[in-house]
Design goal:
Elements: E1 2-4, E2 11-13, H1 26-33, H2 45-64
Antiparallel strand pairs: 1-2
The protein binds zinc ion.
Zinc ion is lined by residues 5, 7-8, 10, 23-25, 28.
């Protein structure tokens, strides 16, 4: 059995292993819930690494001072 993802209209298999059904992915689920309006969900994990490194450097600076 397949359903349409409410967010992107992609065909999604309605199976127990699909944690995000009826959505195709966690991203579409979050979009539908309006969570992406929240800044916390706007930055993908991949892009957060450089920011984390910058913050880490700043943290060291503060610690030294
Ligand atoms: Zn989707």
């Amino acid at each position: 059995m397949n359903v349409e993802c409410p967010t992107c209209k992609k065909s999604v298999a309605w199976i127990d292993s699909n944690t995000y059904r009826p959505f195709c992915s966690e991203r579409c689920k979050l979009i539908d819930l309006g969570a992406w309006a929240n800044e916390e969900y706007r930055v993908p994990a991949e892009n957060s690494s450089p920011d984390d490194l910058d913050q880490g450097d700043q943290g060291d600076e503060f610690t030294r001072h």
